[in-house]
DNA sequence: AGATCAAATATCCTATAGGATTTTCGAAAT
DNA sequence: ATTTCGAAAATCCTATAGGATATTTGATCT
């Protein structure tokens, strides 16, 4: 029975970090891919049977997801994925991004490591939706990491998960604009031009906000 | 002594929200009061016996604390409180605060509710260390809340916990300066002067950073 | 005295069982 | 047809037991 468990044996890191962590990643991936849609109940028992583990690691993983705002718990009523962002939440999220990411882009332009720089430039234009979403996530993650501040990187990673979910809900199209805006940011960082990188990132986020805002009416 | 702990007992919602939440608040309070010092092992079994509950809610609470950066887990080695901040982490934290809090102060000056405004003005000068720490936390929390952005409020609340712990480690003195800086911010917000509130908050954080930085040599 | 190795201890991790509560489904009454 | 009430089902919450692992302690050897 133990041999049947390692469904992720090849991907699992060498030092196993516990079942709870594994469950956490798995459920988070399911939420991000909309396999578990927003505002949907998540049963501890069902997950335990589906993943073939006990309830304890499921419960730990859900507690971590709750702390990250991906699910919410009601006493004696179980867990449920957070409902899709409404207009007010979208506004708050982009207000926050506008505070952080332009600054991160500036610092990245000034101090980003060369290895990360090369990785940033290797971003290919992605044809499919999923590939574009992954590329976009990786793009912003690299810049946040380049800023050299773990708090910034962690905060943005957490926010981008919600942006990803929101965009997936509306099957947002791949716009040429976004790719061009990314290119402008990459060019500014490559040129080590902090002012230009900050301005390009600010413009990118504002345009991105305008594109996403249209999907919401309430 | 248990009765002295429920600082929010009268504010707590009538419907009990589960043992895990209760354990979470309790352990977080113990960490913030240095009853559990930084870099100290936290035994699930001991906590279960001490609090008189089973291991499951303890485990859930520790998972949430881990997601908030207050404890860390090593596989098969148990939980431990995070080590005290070093110089690099302090720098990162205040860089982050400088990005967020001045903006929050500006928005609070422009749009804070009158009820919150009155509560902000009622801050008394606190004689003891603990009372000052609580007042400081409440001061910044009210401003973050006044900005009307939950993400800002939550992020700052999380950061202020670490500031609180760091300051408690060094029994930092109560400075007249900090009180005066607070008063300047309050005055600016009262006058609905966004520019002045932002500048006053920025100066307060920079001075606060200077006061705390001296305690660290490495 | 200091270092090395092995046994014992403490702890974590997982699994299962029982009690408590919410939700849901169906029937009856208005 | 809609609403209300009650019982069944599903689910969560808590507690306890057993296997696995890291840490510690003590004795032995150099």
User: Major sheet of chain A, described briefly?
Assistant: 3 strands, antiparallel
Can you tell me the overall shape of chain A?
globular
Could you give the distance between the termini of chain A? 50 Å
How do the strands line up in the largest sheet of chain A?
1-3-2
Low-confidence stretches of chain A: 1-15
Structural class of chain A: mainly alpha
What gyration radius of chain A follows from the Cα positions, in whole Å?
Answer: 19 Å
CATH C-level class of the largest domain in chain A is Mainly Alpha
What does the average pLDDT of chain A come to? 86
Number of domains of chain A: 2
Count the helices of chain A. How many? 9
> Pair with the most extensive interface?
A-B, 30 and 30 residues
Q: What series of H and E elements makes up the topology of chain A? A: HEHHEEHHHHHH
Strand elements of chain A, count: 3
What is the CATH architecture descriptor of the largest domain in chain A? Up-down Bundle
Name of the CATH superfamily of the largest domain in chain A? GntR ligand-binding domain-like
As a percent range, the share of strand residues of chain A is under 5%
- Looking at the structure, the CATH topology of the largest domain in chain A is Four Helix Bundle (Hemerythrin (Met), subunit A)
Q: How is the quaternary structure best described?
A: homodimer
> What percentage of residues of chain A falls in helices of 4 or more residues?
55-70%
């Amino acid at each position: 029975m133990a041999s049947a468990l390692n469904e992720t044996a090849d991907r699992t890191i060498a030092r196993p970090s516990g079942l709870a962590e594994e469950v956490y990643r798995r459920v988070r991936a399911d939420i991000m891919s909309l396999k578990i849609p927003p505002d949907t109940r998540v049963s501890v028992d069902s997950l335990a049977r589906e993943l073939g583990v006990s309830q304890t690691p499921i419960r730990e993983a859900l507690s971590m997801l709750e702390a990250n705002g991906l699910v919410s718990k009601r006493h004696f009523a179980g867990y449920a994925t957070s409902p899709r962002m409404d207009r007010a939440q979208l506004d708050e999220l982009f207000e926050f991004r506008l505070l952080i990411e332009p600054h991160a882009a500036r610092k990245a332009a000034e101090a980003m490591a060369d290895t990360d720089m090369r990785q940033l430039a290797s971003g290919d234009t992605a044809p499919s939706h999923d590939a574009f979403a992954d590329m976009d996530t990786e793009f912003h993650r690299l810049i946040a990491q380049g800023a050299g501040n773990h708090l910034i990187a962690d905060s943005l990673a957490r926010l981008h998960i919600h942006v990803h979910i929101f965009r997936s809900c509306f099957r947002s199209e791949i716009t040429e604009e976004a790719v061009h805006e990314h290119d402008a940011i990459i060019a500014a960082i490559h040129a080590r031009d902090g002012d230009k990188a900050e301005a390009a990132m600010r413009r990118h986020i504002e345009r991105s906000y305008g594109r996403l805002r249209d999907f919401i009416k309430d």
